[in-house]
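Handout, page 2. Input:
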Amino acid sequence: MATNNYIPALKFNWLTKIYDWLISTFMPEKQFKMALINNAAIQNNFNVLDFGIGTATLSIMAFNNNSQANYQGIDIDDKILSIAKQKIQKNNLPIKLIKYNGGVLPFANESMDRVISSLVIHHLTDEQKLEAFKEFKRVLKPNGELHIADWGKPSNFFMRCCFHLVQFLDGYNTTISSVNGKLPIIIKNAAFNQVAITHNFNTVLGTVQIFKVTL
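Output:
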């Protein structure tokens, strides 16, 4: 995933500054992110990686749920990282931000207890998805878990129609596996054992699913 080949949040850079407002206004953001956090069951002293941290909303929510864990997030987008930095500094939170250049994650083998990610995976091609999942498996401890909130197979025809806007913004080639419900297959191809879809949220843009993945 090269730095010159990523799709910014909402496709256009000028929309990045209003990303938080758009997502919180038109999506059940708090509900699906809290469902992910509850699934993750983050414990004291856990090392938690937020992959594609974006504006840091998920990490901040996770920190507020358990402030005794260690949080760090990576992202490839400088503009969105600057927003995350402002939010973290404003709230005086010990969440570490790392600029990511794609490919190999800058972490040691078996160094993370949890990897979390929200509305990021659908930005990747299937090849990049598989590469990312292999990296998640590498950095997770033997009892570690991966928790994802992202677009899944539309729950009905109306949800499928709504999802065309997401595909227009984020690319049909990267989102087609979401439409076809293939994310669990790609995850298992990265040698994870169990993939469970624990929640479905119907939104104005399509169906968001919560995935719990264990080694």
